[in-house]
């Protein structure tokens, strides 16, 4: 008989709760369930659950996580408030009678919603419109302009907190043509495009 564990990867917003679930797909229950974080050298034990001892959380994870679905066939761990350190893959180990250890892996990805600014500035005989988006993973910035042939330049900056800023500047050589017209900055993040509109006034 093929025994397996069903898991699902999750993507959650920074500083919100997140849950990872494992389900043992054969009819029998495990004797003990262990959750581990995958590390470069060897996995780190986080928490175990068994009928005899209940939930035992390792000191490093005391205030961070708990088992929120107490089962020996279905097990869920919940992080109360995810940080970037929590991003990674986690193993659930079902220690069974007769089959030994059966494991599954679920991965957690942390995202940050884009913060966007859009503004413009006249200088001498040209106009610069700047659109900046900061998010995790890195956003993409596009322009929708009334006519083609307008140049733009983009700068990408990675921040220590795990976010990335993408700043695009639209260089308009004949600003008079642009006055009263709408420019749209489009920000693409995790498959969603959001429009930010700016009308240029002289």
TrEMBL record:
<dbReference type="InterPro" id="IPR013151">
    <property type="entry name" value="Immunoglobulin_dom"/>
</dbReference>
<dbReference type="GO" id="GO:0150079">
    <property type="term" value="P:negative regulation of neuroinflammatory response"/>
</dbReference>
<keyword id="KW-0732">Signal</keyword>
<dbReference type="InterPro" id="IPR036179">
    <property type="entry name" value="Ig-like_dom_sf"/>
</dbReference>
<dbReference type="GO" id="GO:0009986">
    <property type="term" value="C:cell surface"/>
</dbReference>
<dbReference type="GO" id="GO:0050776">
    <property type="term" value="P:regulation of immune response"/>
</dbReference>
<comment type="subunit">
    <text>CD200 and CD200R1 interact via their respective N-terminal Ig-like domains.</text>
</comment>
<dbReference type="GO" id="GO:0098632">
    <property type="term" value="F:cell-cell adhesion mediator activity"/>
</dbReference>
<dbReference type="GO" id="GO:0005886">
    <property type="term" value="C:plasma membrane"/>
</dbReference>
<dbReference type="GO" id="GO:0043031">
    <property type="term" value="P:negative regulation of macrophage activation"/>
</dbReference>
<dbReference type="InterPro" id="IPR047164">
    <property type="entry name" value="OX2G-like"/>
</dbReference>
<keyword id="KW-0812">Transmembrane</keyword>
<keyword id="KW-1015">Disulfide bond</keyword>
<keyword id="KW-0393">Immunoglobulin domain</keyword>
<dbReference type="Pfam" id="PF00047">
    <property type="entry name" value="ig"/>
</dbReference>
<keyword id="KW-1003">Cell membrane</keyword>
<dbReference type="InterPro" id="IPR013783">
    <property type="entry name" value="Ig-like_fold"/>
</dbReference>
<dbReference type="InterPro" id="IPR007110">
    <property type="entry name" value="Ig-like_dom"/>
</dbReference>
<protein>
    <recommendedName>
        <fullName>OX-2 membrane glycoprotein</fullName>
    </recommendedName>
</protein>
<feature type="domain" description="Ig-like">
    <location>
        <begin position="1"/>
        <end position="109"/>
    </location>
</feature>
<dbReference type="InterPro" id="IPR003599">
    <property type="entry name" value="Ig_sub"/>
</dbReference>
<keyword id="KW-1133">Transmembrane helix</keyword>
<dbReference type="GO" id="GO:0034113">
    <property type="term" value="P:heterotypic cell-cell adhesion"/>
</dbReference>
<keyword id="KW-0472">Membrane</keyword>
<dbReference type="GO" id="GO:0030424">
    <property type="term" value="C:axon"/>
</dbReference>
<keyword id="KW-0325">Glycoprotein</keyword>
<comment type="function">
    <text>Costimulates T-cell proliferation. May regulate myeloid cell activity in a variety of tissues.</text>
</comment>
<dbReference type="InterPro" id="IPR013106">
    <property type="entry name" value="Ig_V-set"/>
</dbReference>
<dbReference type="GO" id="GO:0043025">
    <property type="term" value="C:neuronal cell body"/>
</dbReference>
<dbReference type="InterPro" id="IPR033321">
    <property type="entry name" value="CD200_Ig_V_dom"/>
</dbReference>
